[in-house]
Amino acid sequence: MSQPLLSIPAATETLPQPYLLFLGDTTEAGYAKTAFGLRDWARERCVGEFACAGATVSTGLAFMTPLQAYAAGARSLVIGVANPGGYIPTAWFEPLQQALEAGLDLIGGMHARLADIVPLRETAARLGRRLIDVRQPPSDIPVASGRPRRGRRLLTLGTDCALGKKYTALALARAFVARGIDADFRATGQTGILIAGQGMPIDAVVSDFAAGAAEMLSPDAADDHWDVIEGQGSLFHPAYAGVSLALLHGSQPDVVVICHQPGRTHMLGYPQHPLPSVEATIELALQLGRRTQPAIRCAGVTLNTSHLAEAEALRLLSHERDRLGLAVADPMRGGAAFERLVEDCLA
Q1: Residues with Cβ < 8 Å from 329, sequence gap 6 or more?
Q2: pTM of the model
Q3: 249 and 134 in contact (C-beta within 8 Å)?
Q4: What is the pairing mode between strands 270-274 and 255-260?
Q5: Helix 165-178 and helix 335-346: axis angle, to 10°?
Q6: Ranges 183-187, 198-202, 220-224: which has the least confidence
Q7: Which contiguous run of DSSP H or E holds residue 335?
Q8: Can you tell me the distance from the alpha carbon of 234 to that of 213, in angstroms, rounded to the nearest whole number?
Q9: Are 111 and 135 in contact (CB under 8 A)?
Q10: Are 2 and 184 spatial neighbours (Cβ–Cβ below 8 Å)?
Q11: How far is it, in rounded angstroms, from Cα 219 to Cα 234?
């Protein structure tokens, strides 16, 4: 494996662990993707979950107060929510202070910095606790050069936010390595960074430098090396399309995989904006991606079928494969459909 290029201020292996996952007062599962991502990809580091009154989202882990979690071995509370704008509501201050009082450090991946919140900063200082933010880009990011780079690259792109781009990239990177291929998962968001231990929080980078940040994340590599890059947002998103486009141009992917959640009708949190089709997303991705990678191709599609029964999910995957003429799989279900997707990515 190639050496990680970028590290978060405190690499994952040095962060205080295990974690208590904080769900705030969240009522929309899509906004709790950090908690779900850690549950699914770093389960051994998670002791349980904690939430405010009124929360309706759960990871299924044991509910614990911070004191109970500390007694069970937890050493930090991770904010497991990624809400629009990345802010920390005042309603969270008390439970976060409760975690500090119980002996836990705080780990955040929001745009809002924990140390900028006076009650948290004062409580942490009084108790000698740490406030750790992982959404911290490096300070020396260049403007993108657009120069072709050696190595192979795969980027996951979505029809919307929070529907499987990270899971797809993690599953594909793991499958590549299992086949003996030199490959790295390249994280671009707070959850991926917490899972992988390094990465680039692309949506925290000043826009003029975002494509350059993507170039830094996936530098020149051996001809047979693959960087599997976690996508962000959607090229159609009314708020986040700029991040998605910068990542596409800077990554210069040889291969894109389109991620979608069947049944979702509108952009998460934007009911006035209908979801684009998979076909429209493929077409736009290839059109825009050719600017920096003329040979870009779509290897297939992943569907998040977590809300469907097994038989229904398999029928849908088969139907969409035939309809689109591409490999279509749910990376969390695996099976022959996913193996075909892996093969088509590497073809």
Answers
A1: 300, 301, 302, 303, 317, 335, 337, 338, 340, 341
A2: 0.88
A3: no
A4: unpaired
A5: 80
A6: 198-202
A7: helix 335-346
A8: 18
A9: yes
A10: yes
A11: 23
8 Å CB contact between 189 and 134: no
Task: State percent of the chain over pLDDT 90.
Answer: 88
Given a contact cutoff of 8 angstroms between Cβ atoms, the answer to whether 3 and 130 are in contact is no
Between the alpha carbon of residue 221 and those of residues 2, 52, 149, 166, 215, the distances in Å are 8, 46, 8, 22, 12
Taking the C-alpha atoms of residue 67 and residue 104, their distance in angstroms, rounded to an integer, is: 9
CB 136 within 8 A of CB 8: yes
Q: What are the Cα distances from residue 186, in Å, to 120, 197, 211, 241, 334?
A: 31, 10, 14, 20, 21
**Rounded-to-integer distance, Cα 112 and Cα 134, Å:** 11
Domains in the chain, CATH or no CATH each: 17-129 (3.40.50.720), 152-346 (3.40.50.300)
Indicate if the pLDDT at residue 7 is higher than 50: no
Q: Measuring CA to CA, which residue among 217, 202, 205, 189 is closest to residue 139?
A: 205
**CB atoms near residue 44 (< 10 Å):** 6
What is the pLDDT at residue 6? 33
According to the model, what pLDDT value does residue 273 have?
97
pLDDT digits 0-9 by tens, 285-306 = 999 999 999 999 999 999 999 9
Q: Strands 297-303 and 255-260, how do they pair?
A: parallel
Which amino acid, residue 237? H
> Is there a contact between 278 and 159 (Cβ–Cβ < 8 Å)?
yes
Structure tokens at 323: 């309809």
